[in-house]
Design goal:
This protein is mostly beta strands. The protein folds into 2 domains: 34 residues, no CATH class; 337 residues. A 16-stranded parallel β-barrel has the order 5-7-10-14-18-20-22-24-26-25-23-21-19-17-11-8. Strands 1-2 form a two-stranded antiparallel ribbon. A hairpin with a 2-residue loop joins strand 1 and strand 2.
């Protein structure tokens, strides 16, 4: 056999300090075929780093006990196949962290989702999932994540951190240093990252929070979380399509969605300006009770919205945000059910602003996430909803 025509695929599995090499008689570039098992070898003690060049693939036939922090380092890849179940056991010390340049591929199916859960069914029993990307933010050229103190942000709008597809995240949001994790935290994520069919159930703090970036999200369920179901800030420019949220059964929790531009500068650039469409927000009568709250300079476009059982359906605050919406028809096709005040506008000083009648349009048969206030067909089963 000629030296330049070696017909091998080499699949290398590092188990402890052993290297096992297999060949199958096919000519191909082997550099993309190396898979390092590494931290995945002990499902009862799942923690550690996925380092640069490593591809760690979990076994969907096993239960993984998340006993610490799994960090996907720059250049590393974590692959979680359909049906994999990961059970957190170490409270705030249990979470999955993806650094800039790292990738996570958690790709379930409607019939076999990827499940991240806790050993006990109480909100706040583990940290959740944190992903840091290289897309633009408005708090500086880059920022440092409050979880892990990792760099995020940059200039790469098309940055790719992998994909979450048919994933359920439960009972996360553990407290640390006086703060709480969310179920899913996305820091400066680019629009080549896929976030579709993700359910956030019974988490402490927010179900999902987006910190700037350009990521688009689709088919999101966020139910029973103790704070906001869906939250964004720091210059997020993306789309949110098919979002179904519901407050806790006892009526506690805050908004269906809360959005800001920048906590310290309403006019920071790039300005938060998402497109939000086909969404249902189901609330209660206690607590903050705003179905949608937009403030501190955020822009947005909203269409096909159902808000039900809120004291205030849509609350818009701060001068620049009010000016963006008042009389501009950027909120369209809204169905308000059991809502005391449909829309409220307040200046930065807290004064009530008169609402121009072209600020929003109503639609009595708006479908929201797909089925009005009822569970949408796309969410049945995999999300935990029936």
């Amino acid at each position: 056999m000629k030296k330049n025509h070696l017909k091998l695929i080499i699949a290398a599995f590092i188990i402890g300090s052993s290297l096992i090499i297999h060949s199958c008689g096919k000519e191909e570039d082997i550099t993309s075929e190396i898979a390092v098992v590494g931290i995945a070898q002990d499902p009862n003690n799942f923690k550690g780093d996925v380092t640069s060049g490593q591809v760690v693939t979990l076994d969907p036939m096993k239960f993984y006990k998340l006993n610490g922090i799994v960090t996907v380092k720059n250049g590393g890849t974590l692959v979680i196949p359909a049906g994999t179940r990961i059970i957190a056991t170490a409270g705030a010390s249990s979470y999955v962290l993806v650094e800039q340049g790292g990738k996570i591929y958690a790709n379930g199916t409607a019939g076999s989702p990827v499940l991240f859960t806790s050993e006990t069914t109480v909100a706040g029993n583990w940290g959740g999932i944190v992903i840091c990307g290289k897309a633009p933010i408005n708090t500086g050229n880059t920022g440092s994540s409050e979880i892990g103190n990792l760099t995020y942000g940059g200039t790469e709008t098309t940055d790719n951190s992998g994909s979450l597809n048919y994933v359920r995240i439960e009972y996360a949001g553990a407290e640390f240093a006086g703060k709480r994790f969310n179920g899913l935290s996305l820091f400066g994520i680019g629009n080549e990252t896929r976030v579709e069919s993700v359910a956030l159930l019974n988490n402490a703090d927010d179900g999902i929070e987006i910190y700037g970036g350009t990521v688009n999200v689709l088919n999101i369920v966020s139910i029973g979380n103790t704070n906001h179901a869906f939250s964004y800030k720091d210059g997020w420019i993306g789309t949110a399509t098919n979002i179904y949220t519901k407050r806790k059964a006892d009526g506690t929790g805050n908004t269906g969605i809360t959005g800001i531009n920048n906590a310290g500068n309403d006019n920071a650039s790039p300005r938060s300006n998402p497109t939000i469409k086909n969404v249902t927000f189901i609330g209660g009568t206690s607590g903050e009770s705003n179905g949608i709250k937009l403030k501190q300079g955020t822009f947005a476009t909203l269409d096909n919205i159902v808000v039900s059982d809120w004291s205030t359906g849509i609350n818009i605050e701060s001068d620049s945000t009010v000016a963006r919406f008042n009389g501009k028809k950027r909120i369209t096709n809204v169905l308000f059910k059991n809502t005391t005040t449909e829309v409220s506008l307040k200046s930065s000083a807290g004064a009530t602003v008169p609402i121009v009648d072209t600020t929003y349009t109503k639609k009595p048969d708006a479908t929201g996430a797909g089925n009005g206030i009822l569970t949408p067909a796309w969410a049945v089963g995999w999300s935990g909803l029936q």
